[in-house]
């Protein structure tokens, strides 16, 4: 898969149906659409002095006006693995670097109308901040159905569109967040397990100042090019909680070339902090196959069930031997645990030899696997 350059964490990939209505030129003779204007912006938080594992909610309020009405528009953006409803305001810290390299000091906050009308109303959204979020937070850019830009001259970005900076937006509001003893996240790439065994991830979370363990901290373990959820390829694995010593562990049968550890996710999937590790160790896949029946009337469908390890996003192929060659006769997708079901159909009378195979996944460094051959007799 070709990776889309991140450029910034604020890129917005508007869904295709919306592109047809939002980005298409107006019909000939139609009046030009009214432009949305951005009014007062406020940033408030329940607590601006955070320490250790404390989390607070940051609330964004923006006044938007448009004679034709501000139209909600679905999109996928930045680090979020989920589709959201915009308008959205990007906020982030300015000037100094984050207090820790794992801090995610940029958010793209989805907004909903809380007062007024779509023609002139106040829109609100929230995100989460922790001690690692220390810095001066300001608006950066805004995205609405009409306030956006698209790099038409760069085919690498395809259907991606980007938010814009309106006059006075950056200076319109600020919030100074102080942090101390923030959690320091660590994780290591899992050792390559034997076939059918899970990938086990481990690490620790300690506080930056005293080095004390961050106890009972809820974490999220993710994989699949976590920093590029803009391309829709990230996936959520499972939560984990640190022990009294700050240690944590998680296991999965999925394979990833990048593992991520996060804490403080907001409703749109954006964390307070994220640590990542690349995994380039080669893995040789394995696959099983078992036909439901060994002998059926010619032309009868037979379910072939099995499991692929690790779970293969490209699925499996069913092959039938024809002479000295193997011919693909069917395909099936695998579930999250690697299970699949594919149909074999003996075309006539006689005994036919089948096998199930997986493909090489170069991006994940997974080598192909071929299962044991089996026969089905048509009568």
Structure description:
- Helices cover 2% and strands 46% of the residues.
- The protein is mainly beta.
- β5 and β6 form a beta hairpin.
- The chain is flat.
- The N terminus is likely disordered.
- Keywords: Signal.
Proportion in β-strands: over 45%
Uncertain residue ranges: 1-30, 228-234
Largest sheet descriptor: 5 strands, mixed
Q: How much is the radius of gyration in Å?
A: 26 Å
Shape: flat
Task: Measure the end-to-end span.
Answer: 45 Å
Helical fraction equals: under 10%
> Mean pLDDT across all residues, rounded?
84
Signal peptide: 1-30
Keywords: Signal
Give me some keywords for this one.
disordered N terminus, 1 helix, signal, 2% helix, Immunoglobulin-like, mainly beta, 5-stranded mixed β-sheet
SSE layout and pairing:
Layout: E1 12-14, H1 16-23, E2 37-45, E3 49-51, E4 55-65, E5 73-77, E6 84-86, E7 88-93, E8 106-110, E9 112-117, E10 120-130, E11 135-143, E12 160-161, E13 175-180, E14 183-185, E15 199-207, E16 218-223, E17 235-241, E18 247-252, E19 258-263, E20 273-278, E21 283-284, E22 286-287, E23 290-291, E24 295-296, E25 302-309, E26 316-322, E27 325-332, E28 339-344, E29 350-358, E30 366-367, E31 374-378
Parallel strand pairs: 3-13, 21-30, 24-31
Antiparallel strand pairs: 1-5, 1-12, 2-4, 4-10, 5-6, 7-8, 7-11, 9-10, 11-13, 14-15, 15-18, 16-17, 16-19, 19-20, 22-25, 23-25, 25-28, 26-27, 26-29, 29-31
Keywords: Signal
């Amino acid at each position: 898969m070709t990776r889309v350059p991140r450029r910034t964490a604020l890129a917005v990939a508007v869904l295709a149906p919306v592109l047809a209505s939002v980005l298409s030129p107006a019909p000939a003779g139609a009046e030009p659409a009214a432009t949305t204007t951005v009014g007062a912006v406020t940033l408030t938080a329940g607590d601006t002095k955070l320490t250790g594992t404390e989390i607070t909610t940051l609330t964004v309020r923006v006044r938007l006006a448009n004679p034709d009405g501000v139209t909600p528009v679905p999109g996928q953006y930045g680090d979020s693995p989920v589709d959201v409803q915009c308008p959205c305001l990007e906020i982030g810290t300015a000037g100094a670097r984050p207090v820790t390299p794992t801090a995610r000091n940029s958010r793209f906050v989805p907004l909903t109308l809380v007062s007024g009308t779509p023609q002139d109303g106040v829109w609100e959204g929230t995100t989460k901040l922790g001690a690692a979020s220390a810095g001066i937070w300001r608006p950066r850019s805004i995205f609405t159905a009409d306030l956006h830009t698209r790099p038409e001259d760069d085919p690498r970005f395809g259907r991606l569109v980007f938010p814009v900076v309106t006059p006075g937006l950056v200076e319109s509001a600020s919030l100074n967040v102080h942090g101390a003893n923030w959690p320091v996240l660590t994780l290591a790439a899992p050792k390559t397990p034997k076939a059918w065994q899970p990938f086990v991830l481990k690490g620790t979370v300690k506080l930056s100042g005293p080095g004390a363990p961050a106890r009972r901290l809820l974490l999220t373990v993710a994989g699949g090019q976590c920093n590029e959820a803009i391309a829709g390829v990230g996936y959520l694995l499972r939560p984990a909680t640190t022990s009294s010593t700050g240690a944590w562990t998680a296991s999965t049968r999925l394979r990833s070339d990048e593992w991520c550890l996060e804490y403080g996710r907001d409703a749109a999937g954006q964390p307070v902090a994220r640590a990542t590790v690349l995994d380039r160790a080669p893995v040789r896949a394995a696959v099983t196959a078992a036909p439901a029946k060994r002998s059926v009337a010619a032309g009868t469908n037979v379910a072939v069930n099995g499991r692929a390890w690790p779970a293969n996003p490209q699925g499996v192929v069913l092959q039938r031997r024809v002479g000295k060659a193997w011919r693909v006769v069917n395909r099936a997708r695998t579930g999250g645990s690697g299970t699949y079901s594919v149909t074999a159909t003996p075309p006539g009378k006689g005994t036919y030899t089948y096998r199930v195979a997986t493909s090489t996944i170069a991006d994940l460094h997974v080598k192909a696997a071929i299962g044991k051959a089996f026969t089905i007799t048509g009568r």
